[in-house]
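The passage that follows is intended for readers who have already worked through the single-chain material. We present the inputs for a multi-component assembly, then the predicted structure in tokenized form, and finally a short commentary. You are encouraged to pause after the input and sketch how you expect the pieces to fit together before reading on.
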Amino acid sequence: MLFDPNVFLQQLVSTDYMLGAALSVAVAVLSLVLATVIGFFMAIGRTARQPYLQAPAHFYVWFFRAIPALLVLLIMWNALPQLIPALRADWFSPFLAASVGLGLVEAAFMSEIIRSALLSVDDGQALAGRALGMSPTKVMVKVVLPQAIRIALPPTGNELIGLVKYSSLASVISLRELLTTAQVGVNITFRYAEYYAAAIVYYLVIVSVLSFLQSRVEKRFAWTSRTKTTKNLTAAMEANTVGIS
Amino acid sequence: MKTAVEPAQESTVTDPSPREQTLPAHAIPAQPVLQVRDLHKTYNGNAVLKGVEFDIARGQVKAVLGPSGSGKSTMLRLMALLETADAGEILLNGTRIGGRTHRGHSVHLPERQLAMQRQDIGMVFQRFNLFPHLTAVRNVMLGLTSVKGISHHDARSQAMDMLAKVGLGNRADHFPSELSGGQQQRVAIARALVLNPSVMLFDEPTSALDPELVGEVLEVMERLAETGMTMIVVTHEVRFARRVANEVTLFDGGVIVEQAEPEQFFTNPQHERTRKFLSHVH
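Having made your guess, compare it with the prediction:
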């Protein structure tokens, strides 16, 4: 059986693959958002001086770093609805279970990224903010966090790409994301090479787009007035600085 | 509680209008802007401040000299309420700041209250500590918008005025990484000054600068002193201390060794320690 380009191209433009790819990206993005929020509070907890804040954060990271993501997904989809009747309703979809499950696991890793980013912001920054009379919350939001985000961006981009690939684990809870789509097609046609090649192309495109977006976002955090690209155009410079802040 | 204390203090002044006399400024016994009483601070069993006391009157410039590790920077941080004293009191315009007396014990104020009180104290750091993610003008604006609640528009115009005063009106939209050390320190001075503090504290403001950039910062500080700002300057710049300060203080081993007018301090110091220190820096 030779590689049939027609089968390959057909799949490449099929709605099944596009839907699958969209689901993969959506699960990855949603779980990253959840992971960032949880991870931020866990990072705050781990850097706090109070033991009652430190201990739960420590436990969370310890627990979810140890448990395989696949097991978490199986628990989310199979075990939890048995224990909690509310989760047997229709709204609790494989999509939601996958996003939350991967988000919970990813939060443990994001908290480490955020923690090290927060710690790497120079102490003098918070000191200067406090000296101006800013409240602790303002110091965090206006001074420390913007600088921590810049440090956390590259590793977070890596995590997002990882999550796109991890979303294929959700095939075990019957989410028809990208890889499941390919697998279902293969099971019917036995055209392994063509279906898998189409999946490869999709993954490559997704990761390329995400990498491009990442570099765009990172440029926003360059903290220069970009005089090189907008020579002597004060108006353009003004527009840039407004865009950054 | 604070408002109850202040009028009582004023009523004890025998002559209610000393300012109306046509005496030279230094002869008026005005209420000190900042008073420090028996300040103690220990780090890990290491006593850094061992009972520091001084006053500074409005419009005065006090230069603080001393070897590294003498406790002078620690004293500045205590006055800026960035660290808490183990014992002693700091009074700003007659009101105690940083702590209060509760049932006979001195207790530190919560961070939120400290933040309020810090607005009235300007602090300039050795390493500038500008916010690298904000342009020069936004560095100056941040205190106005996020602490004083001033609108973006008004804050910007105030910040632009202040930047012009330190000679950086044409650098407003540059980021700190695009400014020289001297320019950064001038932005930092503008950032503290724009909140209109009662006193400005300088923690070795020129120590991290290339020698050729020191002058522009000292010039801004000298002009600031001429406007009548009350300033405490921890510095190694002996010439600046001599020319601009009203009073020079030598710090060593966590205590004030000598405190005198510049002329007296540099030409006829009373303490052997001061003579020894001056022989090294001259």
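Commentary: The radius of gyration of chain A is 22 Å. Chain A has ten helices and no strands. How closely did your sketch match?
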